[in-house]
Amino acid sequence: MKKIKLRFFSVLIVFSSMLLFSSCGNGRSGDLLSGDVVNNPNSADGKHSGNLPVMEFEKDFHDFGRVIQGEKVSYSFKFTNTGNSDLIISKVSSTCGCTVPDFPKTPIGPGDTQKIEVRFDSENRRGFQNKSITVISNTQPNSQVLRIKAEVVLPEEMK
After folding, report:
1. H-type alpha helices, the chain
2. From CA 69, how far away is CA 56, in angstroms rounded?
3. CB 91 within 8 A of CB 147
4. Separation of alpha carbons 120 and 73, rounded Å
5. Of residues 55, 61, 115, the one with CA closest to residue 85
6. Residue 141 CB: number of other CB atoms within 10 A?
7. Domains of the chain and CATH, by start
8. How many angstroms separate the CA atoms of 87 and 84, rounded?
9. How many CB atoms neighbour CB 27 within 10 A?
10. Can you name the residues that pair with 73 across neighbouring β-strands?
11. Burial class (CB in 10 A: 0-12, 13-18, 19+), 133
12. 45-82: string of b/e by CB count within 10 Å (b at 16+)?
């Protein structure tokens, strides 16, 4: 009986230690934005102040048309921060590894224009391709979706 109690407490101590050490953040504070640049202007009643950044794209869709299989094409989605505070893009992701976005990593001031470049690699693709690119930022709402489209054909089909 004593052995069972001792084993139970040993397991409990080991489990508690693992839980305690795993919740310490592992020293990854450099991956997070500092608190002075994060601003949540929404209140509990659903209203928000007018000091939000606003990401306004010239267009949110681009059609590459017909692309020869293996060809790499790119397009730059231009946008302007039409809001009243700095715009911070925290993440841009795509639905496929064949679509790679590149975006500004520094704050974009009110009135400034920037671009998100999207490169599409048609290697090993064929037929109609529709890809989505999701932009996460400090706007309200915090995500926006850009789309690209292409018809990938073999070289002999381009005639």
Report:
1. 2-22
2. 33
3. no
4. 5
5. 55
6. 6
7. 55-158 (2.60.40.10)
8. 9
9. 7
10. 120
11. buried
12. eeeeeeebbbbeeeeeebebeebebebebebebebbbe
CA dist., res. 103 & res. 138, Å (int): 14
In the DSSP assignment, the letter for residue 49 is: -
107 DSSP assignment: -
- Measured distance CA(56)–CA(81) in Å, rounded: 6
Structure tokens at 2: 């004593």
Please give the Cα distance from 79 to 135 (Å, whole number). 12
Pairing label, strands 127-137, 89-94:
antiparallel
Q: How far is CA 106 from the centre of its chain?
A: 14
Lowest mean pLDDT segment, chosen from 7-11, 67-71, 103-107, 128-132: 7-11
> DSSP letter at 140?
S
Task: Round to whole Å and give the CA distance between 71 and 154.
Answer: 10
Q: What is the per-residue pLDDT across 31-88, written as a single tens digit (0 to 9) for each?
A: 445 555 555 555 544 555 578 999 999 999 999 999 999 999 999 999 999 999 999 9
The encoded tokens of residue 33 equal 């934005």
**Mean of the per-residue pLDDT values of the chain:** 82
